């Protein structure tokens, strides 16, 4: 009877005793976030500020921006915030920090916008909603809609 008690105790305690002790450290994966933009210039202005703040606080965060509907407007060459500041400078700076900008091909077709009108950092995806779902379901991205 004593032997069974000892074996049961070992079976219960062993995982707790070895957790984090004597095992190689596993590097934590960076948090992955997808910002969804669908509401136009004002939302894009808020999102750009949010993303800058996000990266200041957590520089290793992997960030993707998926734009569809009116959210594509800030990714058009020459787009400006309401205060007149061009978006392209901020987009270029964030892209240099690893932020990916993805634009919905279905929206471009529906709005009769040529891909050549996009800023160079914008990458075309067939469907924005499909890309949002894929990033969340298959790649573990957290969803934010500023």
Characterise the protein shown here.
The protein is α/β, with parallel strands linked by helices. The chain has one domain: Hypothetical Protein Ychn, Chain: A. Helices cover 42% and strands 16% of the residues. It has five helices and five strands; from the N terminus they run αβαβαβαβαβ. It has a five-stranded parallel sheet with strand order 4-3-2-1-5, sandwiched between helices. Helix 4 links the parallel strand 3 and strand 4. Helix 2 packs parallel to helix 3. About 11% of the residues have low confidence.
CATH architecture: 3-Layer(aba) Sandwich
Q: Radius of gyration in whole Å, from Cα?
A: 22 Å
Estimate percent helicity: 40-55%
The fold-level CATH name is: Hypothetical Protein Ychn, Chain: A
Question: N-to-C terminal Cα separation, in Å?
Answer: 62 Å
What's the CATH first level?
Answer: Alpha Beta
Could you tell me the number of beta strands? 5
Query: Could you say which structural class the secondary elements and strand pairing correspond to?
Result: alpha/beta
CATH superfamily: DsrEFH-like
Q: What integer is the average pLDDT?
A: 88
Give a short account of the largest sheet.
5 strands, parallel
What is the H/E order?
HEHEHEHEHE
The residue ranges in which pLDDT falls below 50 over 5 or more consecutive positions are 6-21
The spatial strand order of the largest sheet comes to 4-3-2-1-5
Number of helices: 5
């Amino acid at each position: 009877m004593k032997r069974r008690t000892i074996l049961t105790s070992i079976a219960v305690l062993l995982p707790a005793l070895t957790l984090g002790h004597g095992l190689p450290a596993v590097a934590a994966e960076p948090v992955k976030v997808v910002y969804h933009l669908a509401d136009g210039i004002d939302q894009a202005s808020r999102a750009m500020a949010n993303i800058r703040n996000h990266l200041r606080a957590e520089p290793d965060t992997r960030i993707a921006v998926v734009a569809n509907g009116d959210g594509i407007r800030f990714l058009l060459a020459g787009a400006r915030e309401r205060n007149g500041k061009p978006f392209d400078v901020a987009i270029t700076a964030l892209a240099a920090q690893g932020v990916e900008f993805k634009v919905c091909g279905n929206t471009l077709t529906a709005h009769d916008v040529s891909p050549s009108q996009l800023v160079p950092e914008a990458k075309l995806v067939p469907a924005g909603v499909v890309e949002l779902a894929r990033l969340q379901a298959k790649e573990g991205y957290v969803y934010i809609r500023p």
